[in-house]
Amino acid sequence: MPRLLLLLLSLLSFLLPHASSLDYCVADTSLPQTFSGFPCKNPSNLTADDFSYSGLANPGNTSNTIKATVTPAFLTEFPALNGLGLAVGRVDVAPGGVIPLHTHPDANEALVLIQGTLIVGFVDTSNKAYIKSLKTGDVFVFPQGLLHFQVNSGTTPAFAIITLNSAAPGAQLTSFSLFSSDFSSKLIETTTFLSEAEVKRLKTLLGGSN
To answer: In the UniProt record, does the keyword Metal-binding occur (predicted)?
Structure first.
């Protein structure tokens, strides 16, 4: 019996130091990314700092065309999210600012309004729009892949925290995809029914070509 107990204790002593490596995989972003993702950092070298991120503490710069910015805490910024199916970010929108229509192909999104007011909404695949005016403390969700937006129609800056159920949710802004790119102006006119003058104006505004 003592020999069996000794054997069990020896087995546990072998397994326990390796258990934490199955609990998480903090990405080592200094190494090349593979098809299955980033390699894991050695768990024995991790500290609490590896699971903490302070990059959302300060307001983002809203001195731009859209008077808004998103500060991401995605996989590349916060390697502890690797394998957790989670990302967070900070949204700052100045009065009159807008986060234009966009989609996240790989994630659902939840927005929590911390300060100010926002008009938010999305359009589903049956072309029904869901639009809501939010006040501080409100939460709104945007289903995966659907076009959605945020607008500050108030007189004070708005600040929100977003969470997404992917560490790399992806994002495509409709306006920027069309008018910041080299997408042919003639094809944009044909596929969107916009006038030549409007397409030219938007390409000039957003820096597109062709």
So the answer is: yes
